[in-house]
Amino acid sequence: MNILALILTSTNLIHIFTTGPEFVRENPNNFHCNQPDVIAKAVEKVRSEARDRMYVEGLSQLSTPRRSTDDLEELVDSIPIDLRVTQTKASESAFALIECEATIEFEIPDHTMNVIRRDQRSKDVTTRGHAQLTDKGIFWGNFRFGVEFDGRRPTIVELSGLQFPQVLLSTIAITIADSDIILERRLAMVAADFYIVDRDLNSFWRALSTQQRLRMRRSQREWIVEKVRTCSDVDGKGYESLTIVEKIDVLNCHRRMTEERLTRLYN
């Protein structure tokens, strides 16, 4: 390649990187994303991504009682989705002619919303830090998808790069399918968090000198009594009779107070 050709090639590449390929700047026939067929295709794209995600995660093998893949797909397809276009613009992506911005809301049964609302970590996982809980379900305010044209027919080619509504949808499907199993897994995580900080407190106590332990023994015993009074006893029969949600609350209380105690001792 001679120097002139190299310069021309470099110039073209710079132009593409800075302005995008020329074809993405066109809007065929002043196309708008709010066409009913486009909205329907975008919703189906979301459902398709969710189904694909469930295959990858092997959710049918994790469900108890065991649910078939067909059952989980039916759950995905049964969730009402409300997609509303807010803007149509020329895409800066090499994969689409048009970029559509929209809001999207998943309607979730009340019992599932109760599972999500009463547990902060489940809420965080479900909303992915971007979505919002509403009275009806989960609301995503900045959903984007790309459109290209096969002949004159629009085709959905990509969903938002940094936001994954398909993961959100599959999470909801799991919760609907097996809310008790989700809670049991959450209980195991909360228990692990508590026992780690409890182990750290015991290690700290053992590292103290005999004189330090004697001086602090009274306050430590008073703190233990207060912790059990506030959070209830995790070792007694009463704990075993609690529901999963109540056990999660008890362990979270113990973890929080133990962390506070450990911080105070360190200081």
UniProtKB/TrEMBL annotation:
Name of protein: DUF1311 domain-containing protein
Domain named Lysozyme inhibitor LprI-like N-terminal: residues: 190-265
InterPro entries documented for this protein: LprI-like_N
Pfam families: LprI (PF07007)
